[in-house]
Amino acid sequence: MLAWLPSINAALNATATVLLVLGYIQIKRGQERSHKYVMLAAFVVSMLFLTCYLIYHARVGHVEFTGPAAVAKIYYGILISHILLAICVPFLAGRTIYLGLRDRRVPHRRWAVWTFPIWLYVSITGVVIYLMLYHLHPVARPDDKINTITSVMPGESAQ
User: Fold this and answer.
1) According to the model, what pLDDT value does residue 102 have?
2) How many CB atoms lie within 10 A of CB 37?
3) Predicted pLDDT of residue 63
4) Among 25, 65, 87, 109, which one is most buried in terms of CB atoms within 10 A?
5) Could you give the CA distance from residue 97 to residue 13 in angstroms, rounded to a whole number?
6) pLDDT digit string (tens) for 31-57?
7) What local confidence, expressed as pLDDT, does residue 16 receive?
8) In degrees to the nearest 10, what's the CA dihedral of 99, 105, 109, 112?
9) For the whole prediction, is pTM greater than 0.70?
10) Are 84 and 121 in contact (CB under 8 A)?
11) What's the rounded Cα separation, in Å, for the pair 12 and 8?
């Protein structure tokens, strides 16, 4: 199950991204009720992500980036900004949602102006980090390597 958690986390971040954009579109169209439910769903998905993320890293620890130095600078720039802003999201989103549920529209809008772009950035960069770490420059594991002693190329015979 642990091996699947990074993919699940990326799917949860992608889902949060879609829900955030959908919620934004809905509020711009004046669809307040559906906006409320979609934003609550985005919050639940984001908190589910956070839970899975913490479980994974509590068990696995730090996952080292193995890409080239030039790409590592980009990766760590994205990662650092992602982490710093991600720390804020539960508080920003929680406060913004609280104000919205209390029908305190003016402060809700003031908080949402900051919360939405930060939350969206964190959701998108979560997927980018996953792609860079697990697909573009994956860590080589011993079981991933080809056993050169027992492997035979097509057309060759084993000796």
Assistant:
1) 97
2) 13
3) 87
4) 65
5) 19
6) 999 999 999 999 999 999 999 999 988
7) 98
8) 30
9) yes
10) no
11) 6
Condensed to tens digits (0 to 9), the pLDDT of residues 105-136 reads: 999 999 999 999 999 999 999 999 999 999 99
Structure token pair of residue 89: 């999201």
Q: Are 9 and 130 in contact (CB under 8 A)?
A: yes
One DSSP character per residue, the chain reads -GGGHHHHHHHHHHHHHHHHHHHHHHHHTT-HHHHHHHHHHHHHHHHHHHHHHHHHHHHH------S-HHHHHHHHHHHHHHHHHHHHHHHHHHHHHHHHHTT-HHHHHHHHHHHHHHHHHHHHHHHHHHHIIIIISPPP-GGGS--TTT---TT----
Determine the length of the chain: 159
Q: How far apart are CA 123 and CA 126, in angstroms?
A: 5
Tokens of 33: 């009720």
Query: Phi-psi category of 153—alpha, beta or left, where left has phi over 0 and alpha has psi -120 to 50?
Result: beta
Tokens 């056993």 -> residue: 147
Domains of the chain (ranges plus CATH)? 2-138 (1.20.120.80)
